Amino acid sequence: MGRRPKKGTYHQSAPQVSSPPPVRHVDWKNNPLMVAGGSAAATIVLCITVFTQIVLPTQTAKLENDALRARERTRELEDAAKKHSETVRALSSKNENLEKQVKRLASELLDLRQGDLFSYQDPFPKGLGSIRLNALTSEIDRVYAGRKIQLHSDDPTVIKVAIDNSPFSEVSYSYKEFGAQRKIVHIAFSLRDPWDYEENYLLKKVSDAIGPPDEKQGKSYYRWSVSNNSSAYLLDNTYMIMSDDVAPLLWRD
Predict the structure, then answer these.
(1) pLDDT range class, residue 95, cuts 50, 70, 90
(2) Three-class SS of residue 194?
(3) Residues 206, 124: Cα–Cα separation, whole Å
């Protein structure tokens, strides 16, 4: 019989140490992953090389050529626009000169047909001087019998008469009431189609008849003293004769 272990003691066996597995040798050179990765890297390098050395220079050259052609086209368009603008200015200037000549010839033709617009030292236009300041309004119906006579739409104290065969298209007579009488205190002559006449047509005609204006306001307002108690005014294309106790609204005292 074997020995029993003594009371209070125990038997312990030695620990067992497992040996590591054997190391496997990996052939990285021929590993499929490495081969694929290397091929991809080579492809990337090739692509970069082709892009930087072939594609990019080619594209750059094309863009530069396109930009050069665009600049040349821009210069051509600018030159064409400049020449066109010069041509337009030249034609516009010629057109303005022709318009001036046409208006001058129209004025001369009108003078040949109708003679002078005014008589010497008479402020009233020829053929329109029968009714003068202080005349009664009843004279209007007598002198202009058969013509179109009407009251002004905005002022019942103004009587308008349409005129034919004259540089003036209309004559307006303004009156005031003196007791039972209506006396004319303001007469206005409106130039017909003023753009058909040369510049300052009326100013020249009035000045030839009664002399240069005694007063000027602004660019185209003129006044002549025609008697001791009346004056003539030219405001743009409207010629007026009125008593000195009244004045045009546009005339500043």
Answers:
(1) confident
(2) helix
(3) 9
